Amino acid sequence: MKRLTILTTILLATLSLTACSGATSSEDSSSDPSTSKVADSEDSSSDDDTEDDSSEDESSESETSEKESSENQTPTEYTSALSKAQDYAESMKMSKQGVYDQLTSSYGEKFSAQAANYAMDNLSGIDWNENALSKAQDYQGMDMSPESIRDQLTSSHGEQFTAAEADYAVSHLSK
């Protein structure tokens, strides 16, 4: 019964994340043309700077242009998958495998394997050990034993954390 409650909560959170991220995808794509205009105006203003300053500005602008160029070449599906992956990992504290499965699932986001791989390779700021600990604390609050928590964290039908991540989580639970 407790697992059914957890699964229901996860499903509801997933649905709300799906609804919320649809609005951010359209906002992101509408801002791209304006960024290139800003870069163009910075090019023209750097002509008035001294030689040392202009070489630093040009270096900085070239790095910005390269970043914008690579962002513009990344397929929308890939950037959308990355945004979803970041949401799942940060807000739902999912495991790396759990996020990947959610992205590619026919019952989930239905992204291609290539888009999901791009997302997983480009996630930033995620501490999978801390995600496992957060989930372990949730299970501890349901009066589960440490061994049951470890099993739930590593189960292919559960959270799908690695054994090392589950060990970290269980060892850092309050006694």
| Quaternary structure classification | single chain
Give a count of the beta strands, DSSP E runs of length 2 or more.
0
Sheet with the most strands?
Answer: none
The CA-CA distance between the termini, in Å, is: 25 Å
Protein structure class: mainly alpha
- What does the overall shape look like? elongated
Describe the structure.
- It is a single chain.
- The chain is mainly alpha-helical and 175 residues long.
- 75% of the residues lie in helices and 0% in strands.
- The chain contains 9 helices and no strands.
- The protein has helices at residues 2-30, 32-45, 51-73, 76-91, 96-104, 113-122, 128-140, 146-154, 163-171.
- Helix 7 packs across helix 8.
- The longest helix is centred in the N-terminal third of the chain and has 29 residues, at 2-30.
Kindly summarize this structure in a few lines:
The protein has about 180 residues and is mainly α. It has helices at about 1-30, 30-45, 50-75, 75-90, 95-105, 115-120, 130-140, 145-155, 165-170.
Could you name the key traits of this structure?
175 residues; mainly alpha; 0% strand
